[in-house]
Automatic annotation (TrEMBL):
<dbReference type="InterPro" id="IPR009038">
    <property type="entry name" value="GOLD_dom"/>
</dbReference>
<feature type="signal peptide">
    <location>
        <begin position="1"/>
        <end position="25"/>
    </location>
</feature>
<dbReference type="Pfam" id="PF01105">
    <property type="entry name" value="EMP24_GP25L"/>
</dbReference>
<protein>
    <submittedName>
        <fullName>(rape) hypothetical protein</fullName>
    </submittedName>
</protein>
<keyword id="KW-0812">Transmembrane</keyword>
<feature type="domain" description="GOLD">
    <location>
        <begin position="35"/>
        <end position="126"/>
    </location>
</feature>
<comment type="similarity">
    <text>Belongs to the EMP24/GP25L family.</text>
</comment>
<dbReference type="InterPro" id="IPR015720">
    <property type="entry name" value="Emp24-like"/>
</dbReference>
<dbReference type="GO" id="GO:0016020">
    <property type="term" value="C:membrane"/>
</dbReference>
<keyword id="KW-0175">Coiled coil</keyword>
<keyword id="KW-0472">Membrane</keyword>
<feature type="transmembrane region" description="Helical">
    <location>
        <begin position="179"/>
        <end position="198"/>
    </location>
</feature>
<keyword id="KW-0732">Signal</keyword>
<keyword id="KW-1133">Transmembrane helix</keyword>
Length: 208
């Protein structure tokens, strides 16, 4: 399980009439043209599973079909399907960043009414929510175990990070100390040289 990322709430207009929404279990209305994108900020090494279902609330029979593609923060395509009514995508994140799932109506809707809109249920699950748990006490025990594992992993990460920062701090302090001693030594040498030079000057002038 991973710590649930913050959900960004907002609506941003895209070219072609698309929009962006934060990822969670939601219903989306997909227009006949353009696309809608769901996005989520996800940490690295997280299991992600998404289920989608396209329906028509007015017709029980044939409904619209959609195209869907999922991309990584750097635009790498992780999943792509066309002319689908339902499906599931799954992947493990390789980097921390914003992941996108974009849906659009399939260009050929000859089996469906013209200018119709598709209604899509999209459930984007991450970490512990992707597990297929049994009901009852075992569920809570497994969830607790996952939380403990997550806390343990975070503690290990913090310890490694602390050791790394301590090492950098020690090296910095050592270098500062070395520079201080070098500066002190140089100051002593310059002072001795000045005393010797002044003494020699006074001797030449027979002032002492």
């Amino acid at each position: 399980m991973t710590i649930s990322p913050l959900l960004f709430i907002g609506l941003i207009c895209l070219a072609g009439g698309g929009s962006l929404l934060p990822a969670k279990a939601i219903w989306l209305t997909i227009p006949s043209s353009g696309e809608r994108c769901v996005y989520e900020m996800i940490q690295a090494n997280v299991v992600v599973v998404g289920d989608y279902l396209c329906i028509d609330q007015d017709n029980v029979g044939l409904g619209p079909t959609i195209d869907i593609h999922v991309t990584s923060p750097h635009g790498k395509e992780l999943y792509k399907k066309t002319n689908e009514t339902h499906g599931q995508f799954a992947f493990t994140t390789s980097e921390t960043g914003t992941y996108f799932a974009c849906l659009s109506s399939h260009h050929d809707q000859s089996h469906y009414r013209v200018n119709g809109t598709a209604i899509v249920s999209l459930d984007w699950k991450m970490g512990i929510r992707t597990k297929d748990w049994d009901a009852g006490v075992e569920l809570e025990l497994r969830k607790s175990e996952e939380r403990v594992n997550e806390i343990s992993a975070n503690i290990i990460y913090l310890r490694v990070r602390e050791a790394f920062m301590r090492e950098i701090n020690d090296k910095t302090n050592k270098r500062v100390a070395q520079l201080s001693f070098m500066s002190l030594g140089l100051s002593v040498i310059v002072s001795l040289f000045q005393v010797w030079h002044l003494k020699r000057f006074f001797l030449k002038k027979k002032l002492i």
